[in-house]
Design brief:
about 110 residues; alpha+beta; 5-stranded antiparallel sheet; globular; binds guanosine-5'-monophosphate; binds zinc ion
């Protein structure tokens, strides 16, 4: 938990967000400025700045993020039509919130 990190504050309930899923490892909430009909963020509870800061011991976290994304896509009925999963990495990669998160976007068709 980093006290100046917005996503840590959301995870700990100190800042609001529209949660759609939570388990021991990850939370999923709606992006406040959706760029698609479905735009969700899959966020590990552990504070990791970006993909660059992942370590060997974070393998389980990364796989949990991807498997959760798959399940959440199914629940949102966009599995068959399709969706995008992406990480923005550091400023040049468009990252604005420096707590690792996987974008799940879709719902266009
Ligand atoms: P990034 O650019 O870091 O990959 O993505 C950060 C995402 O977080 C953006 O899509 C942005 O709309 C979203 N975001 C920024 N502030 C908030 C917030 O306070 N609550 C929620 N739910 N999403 C946020
Ligand atoms: Zn954080």
């Amino acid at each position: 938990m980093e006290k100046n990190c917005l996503f840590c504050r959301i995870i700990s309930g100190q800042a609001p967000a529209e949660f759609v899923y939570e388990n021991d490892v990850v939370v999923v909430f709606k992006d406040i400025y959706p760029k698609a009909p479905v735009h969700l963020l899959i966020v590990p509870k552990k504070h990791i700045r970006s993909i660059n800061e992942l370590s060997e011991t974070d393998r389980e976290i990364v796989s949990e993020m991807i498997l959760t994304a798959k399940e959440i896509a199914k629940k949102n009925l966009i599995s068959t039509t399709g969706y995008k999963l992406f990480f923005n990495v550091e400023r040049g990669g468009g990252q604005e919130i420096f707590h690792l998160h996987l974008h799940l976007i879709g719902g266009w068709i």
